């Protein structure tokens, strides 16, 4: 909970929220931050993490496992406050978490959807070993009401059956 007061200061930014799924609220309030911290700290699978740089909260990352016939796979995502963009922090965090999830987290596949306009996020995923698997046409409605395509990226363990 000690991180919760810092979250709105970096998350309540339209440019941060613009290419995020709507479950990432904008405006981003203290109540939103408190809810996220409770979720992150009570998740038994411990799959949500703060991104911290030099002792300062920079963003968040997580994997959300699927169930049933998709057991062993998860959706992957991350976000950074604008002050931390362009410094390799997103790539480092995404690489660290995706490596951990696939190597020791019991997952064989991660997938991430990115608004086609979010070129920087697509590039981060590519640098972390995610492959572009296709374009999902008209998947999203952005925060301005425009219908947008999404890029679907996937990353699998080297030995998906192992």
Shape: globular
State the order of secondary-structure elements, H for helix, E for strand: HHHEEEHEHEE
Q: In percent terms, what proportion of residues is strand?
A: 25-35%
- Structurally, the number of domains stands at 1
Average pLDDT rating: 93
Count of individual helical segments: 5
Number of strands: 6
In CATH terms, the superfamily is: Gcn5-related N-acetyltransferase (GNAT)
Specify the CATH class: Alpha Beta
Low-confidence stretches: none
Any idea what the radius of gyration is? 15 Å
The major pleated sheet works out as: 6 strands, mixed
CATH topology: Aminopeptidase
> What proportion of the residues is helical, as a percent range?
25-40%
The assigned CATH architecture is 3-Layer(aba) Sandwich
Task: Describe this structure as you would to a colleague.
This protein is of the alpha+beta class. It has one domain (4-156): Aminopeptidase (3-Layer(aba) Sandwich). Helix content is 28%, strand content 32%. The protein is built from five helices and six strands. The protein has helices spanning 7-11, 14-17, 30-42, 89-103, 119-127, and strands at residues 48-53, 56-65, 73-80, 109-115, 131-141, 147-156. It has a six-stranded mixed sheet, sandwiched between helices. A hairpin with a 2-residue loop joins β1 and β2 (56-65). α4 packs across α5 (119-127).
């Amino acid at each position: 909970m000690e991180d919760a007061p810092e979250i709105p200061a970096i998350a309540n930014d339209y440019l941060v929220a613009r290419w995020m799924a709507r479950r990432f609220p904008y405006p981003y309030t203290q109540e939103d931050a408190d809810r996220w911290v409770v979720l992150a700290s009570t998740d038994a699978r411990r799959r949500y993490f703060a991104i911290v740089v030099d002792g300062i909260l920079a963003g968040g990352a997580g994997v959300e496992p699927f169930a049933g016939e998709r057991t062993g796979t998860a959706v992957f995502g991350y976000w950074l406050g604008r002050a931390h963009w362009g410094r390799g922090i997103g790539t480092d965090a995404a690489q660290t978490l995706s490596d951990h999830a696939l190597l020791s987290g019991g997952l064989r596949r991660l997938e991430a959807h990115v608004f086609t306009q979010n070129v920087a996020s697509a590039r981060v995923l590519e640098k972390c070993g995610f492959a572009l698997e296709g374009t999902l046409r008209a998947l999203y409605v952005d925060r301005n009401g425009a219908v947008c395509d999404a890029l679907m990226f996937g990353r699998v363990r080297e030995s998906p059956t192992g």
